[in-house]
Specification:
single chain, 126 residues, alpha+beta, 3-stranded antiparallel beta sheet, 3 helices
Length: 126
Amino acid sequence: MENLSDALYSKPAAAPCSIQLDFSESNDKPTTEELFQELSILFADGLKRFCGLNENGKVDLDAMREKDFMKVREYFLSIGFNVIYNIENLGTFIYRNPKPVVLKDFKLSITTAKYMYVIQFDNYIA
């Protein structure tokens, strides 16, 4: 995934659905869960690249702006995936993740001192 991350993020975002992902290194088509895991890593790489790291070596999600998420989303659209995110106050949010079946059912939750960020991926249809 590191090579994909470098290739994807090293130049301006391409048009939606213009970059084809190649899983030919694997004998089998990835499961939905494996695809979600790979997309999560690719998403984190984009945040690191465009938003930088704090003094602890982590992306400070609470300091990010919507434009930061939208920039990474542009790159995901170019590989045919949409990034959906929600930011919830910790005191009011109850997180339930049903048994995931399709890609959009998988949720990446990241908790900070203030908020819970819930990230999902879905196939993008232009």
